Amino acid sequence: MNSPTELAPEVRSILESAGERSNADRDRLSVDARSLPDALARAAADGRVPIIAEVKPTSPTADGTRGDDPVELAEAMVDGGAAAISVLTEPDHFGGSAEALERVRAAVDVPVLRKDFVLEERGMDVVEADLLLLIARFVEDLEGLVEAARDRGFQPLVEVHDRGELEDALEAGAEIVGVNNRDLAKLEVDLGTFESLSPHVPDDVTLIAESGVSNPEDVRRMREAGADALLVGSAIMDHDGAGDVTENTRRLTDATQETPNE
């Protein structure tokens, strides 16, 4: 894990909270997961851009907070064509909860990602989800956590930001990799991050572009660079307003009819 001094203060605070929340002993989960690759393939076959839409009440980089019911938000995203849903379960900085994810997963028929800062194995046994985020930068034993997630039935989504983290993810056996365009050391976003890493990802790995996608042009750019799917939060949630989540999602899922990922 990177030194805490290399991270933005907001991220250091999130990690401290995550460490505290990971200490409680819980029963080991066993999950019957919905396949993300199958869901992405169905979306593409239907002519939709495969979007993982994120239920994110707020964040350290958001301009406001949306207090809508998370189930209503998730259902609106699916109505807009989302291939999968991501739900924040981090409570202190993102306004998320395990209960929200549980309710969302019961209400929708697409895969649901648990988006949180899981630092160790016992942090996995919080709530059933189809996918579990593991951030390569923040864990000591990535291979062990990938295996532990799979043992529970989760599909691990391993997030990376640079070439070294990508190599670590592939060596750990990651089959689903997310490239975060946001540098967590500075909280700066650069879509070129995905473009620089995507050529080094094997074809049999599901590749997801994360962060910084705000409009159809960004969608086209990421798809042309090799993204199998895009994880989008703020552009859909519209934290500084009360935008129509269904229309926000549809605007992105319809974005690249003329330039599909090949």
TrEMBL record:
Record-annotated Indole-3-glycerol phosphate synthase domain positions: 17-241
Region annotated Disordered, chain positions: 239-262
Enzyme class: lyase
Pathway: Amino-acid biosynthesis; L-tryptophan biosynthesis; L-tryptophan from chorismate: step 4/5
EC number of the protein: 4.1.1.48
Reaction catalyzed: 1-(2-carboxyphenylamino)-1-deoxy-D-ribulose 5-phosphate + H(+) = (1S,2R)-1-C-(indol-3-yl)glycerol 3-phosphate + CO2 + H2O
GO terms assigned for molecular function: indole-3-glycerol-phosphate synthase activity; phosphoribosylanthranilate isomerase activity
Keyword Lyase: yes
Any one GO BP annotation for this protein: L-tryptophan biosynthetic process
Keywords associated with the record: Amino-acid biosynthesis, Aromatic amino acid biosynthesis, Decarboxylase, Lyase, Tryptophan biosynthesis
Amino acid composition bias (Basic and acidic residues), ranges on this chain: 239-253
Pfam families found in the cross-reference section: IGPS
Family annotation (CDD domains): IGPS
Lyase recorded as keyword: yes
Gene3D superfamilies: Aldolase class I
Record family assignment: Belongs to the TrpC family.
Protein's name in the database: Indole-3-glycerol phosphate synthase
Species of provenance: Natronococcus amylolyticus DSM 10524
